[in-house]
Specification:
Length: 387
């Protein structure tokens, strides 16, 4: 008997990924509240997102090449690189944890989440930024194979020990995009196991046993609290005022990188009532699709559609391009834009600081690559370009 499976196109896979954040989570959020005003504002926002997804699926798109050119790299060098990325992280963690039991590790993770270790990026960025970008490019271009198990383990360990699931975004998106195109029972089973393990560790860091199961699941699934950050009043924001805080533009107005949320979050009505636990505005997750909706109301369908199209085209460029640097550049833009649009705009505001990771990841990949990155037929046809 043939195993249960089904295939999706790349555009359908992207739409399914986006629908988790744009449709499924808003639907689940509606079930948490019984106030008509709360339900109506979430419902309108959901419909705007749904229409943008439908437009995206129906629109013409750039076609992928029939044969994706496989990247060739040394598995041994990739393993050594993974260990080298792990070593500074282990040195930092071992020097920061006060004890050796699980509670001490959880305390360290929570302190790191709250920003108690500023300036630690020199130790952690190799395992949380550089290595994940390399793995993402390999996943999108080559698909999954056993050579990625050690670097994936390093990324999972880094995310768990530091208590921040945002570091898993590259891995999560990459695995999801290559998996949903050919789902089967085995992949679904492994996915469920991974989610359960991840949720259990998050509960250790932030136990919320007093919540009902439905509320608990939503709290662990996503950071944004839609019922608090989606505004009810149509066209309630001044989008021009928001744009002056964007990366690079902010310098013209003299704004700090962290200034945007300090400007925007206090403008949300009844925030202190809806999110009484908030102590720092920078900790409030604000997805780009919510920001656009609050500014443009139903007209948000248009920019949301174009952003989805941009996200899809970046994936196509990653898979089609023979230029290694262009692959990494498009991969980084994809990660930043998708994370900012679906999870938290904070990813966009860190663009100026973190763009160096494109070059670091690219150089690291060149070091583990074989110069004959494609087979002889492909090399004769132009081959790979490293820059």
């Amino acid at each position: 008997m043939k195993a249960l499976s089904f295939n999706l196109t790349l555009s359908q896979s992207c739409a399914l990924l986006a629908s988790i954040f744009l449709v499924i989570i808003p639907i689940a959020t509606i079930g948490r509240y019984f106030n008509n005003a709360e339900i109506s504002k979430i419902l309108i926002h959901l419909l705007v997102n749904l229409f943008a997804l439908v437009l995206f699926l129906k629109s013409p798109k750039i076609k992928m090449h029939n044969e994706i050119k496989q990247l060739k790299f040394s598995v041994f060098r990739l393993t050594i690189l993974s260990v080298l990325c792990l070593m500074p992280l282990l040195a930092f963690v071992s020097g920061s944890i006060q004890g050796s039991n699980l509670v001490d590790i959880a305390i360290f993770s929570e302190q790191y989440r709250q920003g108690a270790y500023s300036g630690s990026g020199i130790y952690t960025a190799w395992a949380t930024q550089v290595l994940p970008l390399i793995v993402f490019v390999i996943l999108i271009t080559n698909g999954f194979n056993k050579s990625l198990l050690i670097p994936i383990f390093v990324i999972l360990f880094a995310s768990a020990i530091l208590g921040l699931r945002v570091y898993l975004w590259r891995l999560f998106i990459g695995l999801l995009l290559i998996s949903v195109g050919n789902l089967n029972v085995k992949r679904i089973f492994y996915g469920i196991i991974f989610i359960l393990l991840f949720f259990s560790y998050k509960l250790l860091l932030n136990p919320q046993s007093e919540l009902a199961f439905h509320d608990l699941f939503i709290e662990q699934l996503t950071r944004p609290d839609l019922h608090a950050i989606v505004k009810y009043e149509p066209f309630s924001d001044n989008l021009i005022g928001v744009l002056e805080y964007f990366p690079f533009l902010r310098k013209l107005y003299g704004h700090e990188i962290s200034a945007f949320k300090n400007f925007y979050i206090p403008s949300i009505p009844n925030l202190s009532v809806l999110m009484p636990f908030v102590s720092l505005y920078s900790g409030v997750a604000l997805p780009g699709h919510v920001l656009i909706y609050n500014s443009l109301f139903v007209l948000a369908i248009i920019p949301n559609f174009f952003i989805l199209l941009l996200i899809y085209n970046l994936i196509v460029f990653i898979r089609n391009s023979r230029n290694i640097f262009l692959k990494f550049f498009c991969a980084y833009l994809f990660i930043v834009i998708s994370l900012a649009f679906l999870e938290d705009v904070n990813a966009l505001y860190k663009l100026e600081e973190e763009i160096i990771f494109i070059f670091a990841s690219y150089i690291a990949f060149v070091l583990i690559s074989r110069r004959t990155s494609y087979n002889s037929k492909d090399v004769a046809d132009g081959g790979v370009k490293f820059f």
